[in-house]
Design brief:
The chain is of the alpha/beta class. It has one domain. The chain is built from ten helices and six strands; from the N terminus they run βββαβααααβααβααα. Helix 1 crosses helix 5. The longest helix is centred in the middle third of the chain and has 21 residues. The relative contact order is 0.21.
Amino acid sequence: MPEKPKLWTVVGVDCALDEQRLGLARGRLDESGQLHIQRVTLGTAGESAAASVSTWIRGAEAFVVALAAPLGWPQPLAASLLEHQAGEKLAAPRDTLFRRQTDRELRKALGRWPPEVGADRIARTGWAALELLSEIRGLSQRPVPLAWQQGVESGAIEVYPAATLLAHGHSSTSYKAKTPAGRRARQDLLQRLAAEMTLEVASAVLIEDPNQFDAVLCVIAGADFARGVCVEPTDRELAKREGFIWFRSSGQGLLPYAVDTPSASD
């Protein structure tokens, strides 16, 4: 008999330096693989972001924490800075220093560059994400490694909300603006995403706040990882050093919940 599918808790974190702008969302995958969005909030609502996430995953059978921030830096940059002296030329080309392999793979697949990890605000957000992840590990009292085995391994992953939208066939422009046009874009996207999730929270909150909206996109990306339908890194060892952005493979529709199929010898 095939194994019963795991019940996944999927947490989306739209990382930010200021917890007042840090979006959090919690979802679950039911036995059929349907995604239910159960909670959205900000990092300062009642308790810290780390405390909220830790509570959500503490008793989960399986979980994904999908963080919208870089969780690593380009390997050539680290190597170049190790022996660098002020005033000397850096040996590696600019794009090699400031772009990761996952950035290049995402650009090739979806036609869009993610923000450069070396940029000031992005680098600081990455630092804050790693601090948050460390706090979650301490408070949840369970291992929260970076996960690499889709549909099997619980843990944290790096995601990029705009890539999730593009991978699902939707526009990623204009939706983040806190303007009437931005609100209309988010409302339109929620309608388009309705076939892919059951929303158990008020849509008005997501239309009003792009940070909580992005947190839901992180949940969708985490659900794709739990289902096992994401693009795999071409160089896994390099990805483990630099970090890897998980997004659904183009051409993949909503697939059934990943289950183990018995072999002919079973």
